[in-house]
Design a protein that fits this description.
Layout lengths: L6 H4 L8 H33 L4 H24 L4 H4 L13
Helix pairs in contact: 2-3
Organism: Nocardioides iriomotensis
Family: Belongs to the gas vesicle GvpK family.
Protein name: Gas vesicle protein K
Length: about 100
C-alpha cells in the first residue's frame, strides 16, 4: 500500500455482487450449518441406540425423523444444484467441516 493514497481511495466503496450469487452463497452457508447439525444429531442418535437408552418406538421415530430431515436436505440442495461436497468447508490443517 502506498502512503500517499488514503485507504478509502484504494478499497472500493461497495462490493460488486449480484443478488442471485448473494442469495446462493447465503443459502449455501445456511445449508452447511443445517447439514452439520443434522450429522451431529445422527451421531448422537446412533450413540443412544447403541447404549440402549431408547425404546423401540423412540428408535423408530428417531429414524423416521432423521430420514425426513435428510430427504428435505436433498431437496433443498437440489434447488440450488448443490452437493454435500459443495457444503463441506475446508478448515485447512483441521480438515473439512463435514464428515464424508
Amino acid at each position: 500500500m502506498t502512503d500517499d493514497l488514503p485507504a478509502h481511495r484504494i478499497l472500493p466503496q461497495r462490493l460488486a455482487t449480484d443478488s442471485e450469487s448473494v442469495e446462493r452463497d447465503l443459502f449455501k452457508l445456511v445449508l452447511t450449518i443445517i447439514e452439520l447439525v443434522r450429522q451431529l444429531m445422527e451421531k448422537q442418535a446412533l450413540r443412544r441406540v447403541d447404549e440402549g437408552d431408547l425404546t423401540d418406538e423412540q428408535v423408530e421415530e428417531l429414524g423416521l425423523g432423521l430420514m425426513h430431515l435428510e430427504n428435505a436436505m436433498e431437496e433443498l440442495k437440489g434447488k440450488y444444484d448443490l452437493t454435500t461436497a459443495d457444503l463441506n468447508i475446508d478448515l485447512g490443517p483441521l480438515g473439512t467441516l463435514l464428515s464424508e
